Amino acid sequence: MNSISPNPRTVVHRLVQWSSQWIPALLVALVALVIWHLVAWGFDLPRALLPKPVEVWQAAVANRSALLAALYSTGLAALVGLVVAICIGSLISVVFSQSRRVRLAFFPYVIFLQTVPIVAIAPLLIIWSGYQFRTVVIVTVIVCLFPIVNSVTAGLTAVDRQWSDLFTLYGAGRMKRLCRLQVPAAVPYLVLGAKTSSGLAVIGAIVAEFFVGNGTEYDGLGTLMTHWQGFVRTDALIAAVFTSTLLGLALFGLVHLLAHSVLRRWMTLV
Amino acid sequence: MTVAFDADEPAVDAVNLTVGSGEIVSLIGPSGCGKTTLLRAIGGLQKMYQGSVLMSPPMVANSGQIGFVFQQPALLPWATTLQNVMLPLELIGHGNRLDRLDAASESLAAVQLSAAHHKYPHELSGGMQMRASIARALVTNPGILLLDEPFAALDDMLRSDLGRLLLDLWQQRRFTAVMVTHNISESIFLSRRIVVMRHGKLEQSIDNPLAWPRDPSLMRTAEFASFFGVVSDALRGEETTVDTTRSGASR
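Above: the input entities. Below: the structure tokens describing the complete assembly.
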């Protein structure tokens, strides 16, 4: 009767498939939690050294409003930083793709972004930009930029020879070649770079917050971690670690979902 | 024409080839003998060390007068079949969008792919992708069609079907075609002349004595088998005794 209602057998089949995909990972997590509990309980370790999993859960529930507020701040900084890095990184890659000389001259400095210890330059950025959200975003952009530039430049410059020949045959100019060939061909590479950077974005934001949040109104997960470390609130600290991990996973999942819907057309490339 | 990647050993060495209007010529020879390089140089895709390609009437740059069918279909995966076929027209700035749509639809119909307008390349079979590739090469109505082992990746049945399709299209449009192939039967069935290359040089040019129009049943005739032997000998570097053979240089 209802032609758009999903076939129950298909739904069940998908559910089983989905479960079978996640069950092994969930089992590993469960085993790890049990081992953790047994170690903390068996050695009678003090809560300040290693709280039991249930105590971490209790600390998370007790501090949920602080954790949620921090999650929002860090998540926003990581997301904004990632988006800005994608935009800036893509523009840099387009410039690199148009001139080999420019690429040779500037690419080493992009590698510098990857090799510079972010912990070392974060205090410098705070002096220049202040104890604020903007500084967290800048640090996140610096951390995320290299994978984007590296991937997208590779995608823009490594276009299939036959496609390139096709555009040469019909006399396509630089702009047509860029817009109609290089940019679309680089989309899977952009997605790859964005996936790598999505995990780094959360790390960058939290590292920046270790410095930015110190003694200010800014309330990110990094701020909370330094705060709770000062009070030896190990249970809450571990809860913050789990929250940041979940944030990283969520950001990765978001990029993955967007990529999946965008990349359907690129099936032969991915 | 001479094309050299390495100064000591040119990939194409002083080749002089004349192709008549409406003629189909096959280039055959062992791997690495310079067939594809010669074809690419004719299409302007390969810089020449020396020489030139002369056309009568002279070619207008970027006008789509040359079509190229690559070894792989080389369809853009982010574009539909129709968009892929329209691409050459867009690149040469032909007409308005409606004109381009009409021409692309017509070209797709010519290769029996009208039903695949809105499909993406990954939704097409290998044979359909190659048909789309041929439709793209013919959409500008080129006077010259260059084909670089277009059916090499296909099975025998598809290869035969697409060979027949190519002949049908040629009979309708009478374009000049130069095709690189490793397949002797294909070169005999499709072409009027077979050019054998070796070490970058044009070794022999053999006129195909088989009559037109050609039908797949031709491949089962004694005449076909006999000529297959001649081409096969030429490919192995043995002297051929057919009186239709001419030296490449004299062409």
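Note for the figure: Chain A has ten helices and no strands.
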